[in-house]
Amino acid sequence: MESMQNILIVGAGFAGSVCARELAEVGHKVLVVDRRDHSAGNAFDLKDEHGILIHQYGPHIFHTNSERIFNYLSKYTEWYQYEHRVRGVVDGKEYPFPINRDTLNQLYSLDLDEKGAADFFEKVREPRELVKTSEDVVLNSVGRDLYEKFFLNYTKKQWGLDPSQLKAGVAARIPTRTNTNDRYFTDTFQAMPLHGYAVMFENLLNHPNIEVQLSTEFKDVLNSSREFDHIVYTGPIDAFYDFKFGHLPYRSLRFEHEHLADQEWYQSVGTVNYPNDFEFTRITEFKHLTGQQATSTSIVREYPTAEGDPYYPIPRDENEILFKKYKVLADQEERVTFVGRLAEYRYYNMDQVVGAALNAVDKILERK
């Protein structure tokens, strides 16, 4: 790629910000635009009016097995070591989740060792020769009772669909354990940005070759007099093409933040799932995540919705078929790179977005 090109990056989340920094580092002039009034995308955090650091768009817990990606982000943040733990509420009682040996012993009043837990799962599971759906995954692993207690109604709330209507990958993300490990993630690197995500993104975007324009629609920039040699687009791919083939389905979220002035802690762990009760799916208490010390606390409840900002691509075969129509167009673009969860219609974790962005930059720089 020729030196000192003008590059437009649409979106100031992980994908856009990492691309911006890497392209700026090798001399390109980069304009980053975002329709929101802040960078950091859905990872954006800030101190609420009571001084508690909260995640505006729900909990974002960083974890990765990639030393390369952890070291990359370490250039822009210090870390607070944190291992996320989750509980699931069934019939008014909290149990470790993902399901482990303690879950079985507490739920069924048993005293299983590791082999006993493995034997229990083998006894109750409903084997599936072909594992096509999320229902297949869970029934094949833990059987019907645990499926109905922990997964069925949570999935219905989260996705607005029955697990039998979702691809297997959704449930495959959640492990089942015969030991007593109650960490939600088992990745090698688990930590939170010490001063928050917003500060980390400020550091990422702090480069003389990077200009950031917030509260800006990218098509307004395209229609301006500025010219760009290349575009990195991280928004919804169907929006880029003005929904030519129709809207890609996304699941959205509504967040209900609450501050509790008269108590230091609200719950025992970072996140508590409510699979069978209430309209919300889970409650997160931010002080667990950040290590912040305070005599009061702030929580957020998450309500999945069909309308609103796109958060999760809905993993169904018909949606993949529609996405591929847009991807055919995207693959023909010589001056546009599509990267990120919305642009690639993929459920990426944060570290996966960073990896995808670094790979996208490599391909951009390879072009002559």
TrEMBL record:
Similarity annotation: Belongs to the UDP-galactopyranose/dTDP-fucopyranose mutase family.
Top-rank taxon: Bacteria
MF GO annotations: flavin adenine dinucleotide binding; UDP-galactopyranose mutase activity
Protein name: UDP-galactopyranose mutase
Statement: the UniProt record of this protein carries the keyword NAD: no
Lineage, top ranks: Bacteria, Pseudomonadati, Pseudomonadota, Gammaproteobacteria, Moraxellales
Cellular component aspect of the GO annotation: cytosol
Keyword set, alphabetical order: FAD, Flavoprotein, Isomerase
InterPro entries: UDP-GALP_mutase, UDP-GalPyranose_mutase_C
Ranges for domain UDP-galactopyranose mutase C-terminal: 149-347
Cofactor list: FAD
EC number: 5.4.99.9
Organism of derivation: Acinetobacter wuhouensis
Enzyme class: isomerase
